[in-house]
Design a protein that fits this description.
332 residues, alpha+beta, Immunoglobulin-like, 6-stranded mixed beta sheet, 4-stranded antiparallel beta sheet, 6 helices, transmembrane, membrane, DUF3040
Amino acid sequence: MSETRSVEELEQALRPDHPDRLTAVRLAAIRSQGRRRRRARLSAYGVGAATALLVAGVVTTQVTDPTGSGAEDRASYADEVRGPAELLPLAARALAEVPGARQVSAGQVVLPRPADAVDPMADVVADRFVDAAVDLGAHGYTGVTSFDTGAFPQWLSSGVQAWERAQGDESSWPVGSTDNGILVDVGELQLACVRPFHEGFSGEGADRCSPAVLEERDGVRTFGWGMGTDDFLAAGSDLELFDAPDYSTGSPRMLWIGGRDGTDAARVELVATDGSRTEATVAAGTVVPGDTMFWGPVTGELAEAVVYDADGDVVERHEVRPCDDPVDCEVR
């Protein structure tokens, strides 16, 4: 029978007989697994660990780049969503030669996902593990090397792989990175409450679900990314915010998703640093039973989320936290 294991237990399970074989970089990646939800991951970590997480019934995602080479360690999420200052030569060629490619910023190109493309580490069909999902009004994105060889032209796959190898070292490098300005649209994003993945799982927590983002294309939902633990939905906890770049409108913006304990939230405003306000969509008790999730797009820098009750009173004001390292930047 499978069981849910903590990050610390997974770390011990993945530790080899000789500690020097598991580098500090890889251990740091495992420790941060609970808050990691971007799709770029280290090839040195690989399929085995991701498979172990799924079999263990943990709602989570692959390891992201802990080496500091990518957008994860940027304090400004506006910089992250805008990408490079100009198109790299490989991105410019992709724009010119890949059918359906479109430029969405000065340094970024979005490619359509090929119909027969396979992402072996992310294509987990999620319909069996959710009861309902809501549309977030945004799309998800990943990098070219997330997919099997042959999904894209050889010059593009090998060129992106060479770029990624140059960002790492001899033992680890990012895979599926979008920091080179080449992104693949993987479908519409949906929010759902996801039950443990393993069908045979019947241990503690088998009857509960946790919020997660799904990707939907051609009527099929797959697991996109989780939010680590859902401790932010526990009684007395502060709300938490999660971000995801979106280019579905043809220009960069950031989708913000938040969660809060209870169902007393009637309205949520997302306030940018320039004073502009976005009215978030609020789902009180409908996506996650007994708790509130909310989401909305913001162009520019988000300053705070303000939660109001049905009487119009402010029940929580959450300022976006500054961050100094990749882990701190995951949850704001």
